[in-house]
Design goal:
By secondary structure, the protein is of the alpha+beta class. Among the domains are: 78 residues, no CATH class; 39 residues, no CATH class. 30% of the residues lie in helices and 24% in strands. The protein has a 4-stranded antiparallel beta sheet with strand order 5-6-1-7, with helices on both faces. The protein has a 3-stranded antiparallel beta sheet with strand order 2-3-4, covered by helices on one side. Strands 8-9-10 form a 3-stranded antiparallel beta sheet, with helices on one face. A hairpin with a 5-residue loop joins strand 8 and strand 9. Helix 1 packs antiparallel against helix 3. The chain starts with 11 loop residues before the first strand and ends in a 10-residue tail after the last strand.
Amino acid sequence: MSTVTFLSSEQALFEMSPSSDLYIRTKKSNAERLAFVLEIEKEFGFNDHFAYRDNHFGLEIGSEAEQQYEKSLTKGDWYGYRKFRKASKEYKKLLSLYQKHCHTFVNPFDMMDAFGMNNGTVTQWIGDRWFITVRDGLQVCASAKPTHYETYLRAVRDYKESVGEIHVEKCVCGGTFKPTDRVWNVEPPLFEYMCEDCKTISNRTIDGEEVRPR
């Protein structure tokens, strides 16, 4: 079961319109970046200790992957990584894979145009929904609409349910608990469920664990 890192409830929250140009391009970019990483994993056997930027590719210092490809890496420290030497066969293969996908990658400056210079703090995709927290909501483009934090919490819950990551046991009467629209922005967030048969109310965490009143 995946762990959820919730966005902050203390900053302005927006959701990007699915019909906007940036949404469409970013969704495609995300798919291409994933395809790029999966191809690297298939070719070299690593992905979680790998970083890239433009035509630079590196492995995290201290990782097993760094030790495995020691002879193909430069000596310098690149933000905690060591870059592949451009003369190495690994670099040439990585560059070839990168050039295969990079034409669809969204430029970071496009994000700044949409959310304001150094204004966006965190972006998060929940299924096909794209949420963004910002410092100043007045700088955000018209394609992103302000939304309530409770709406975001429900989106997280609904997505986890859709992929089978929430297990809620049956009510003592044998009925099935179903989520209502009520959520509580507490730590951790709580979600209301109601038994379809006896209408018993049960408050639960994002993983479906019941939280009883003290």
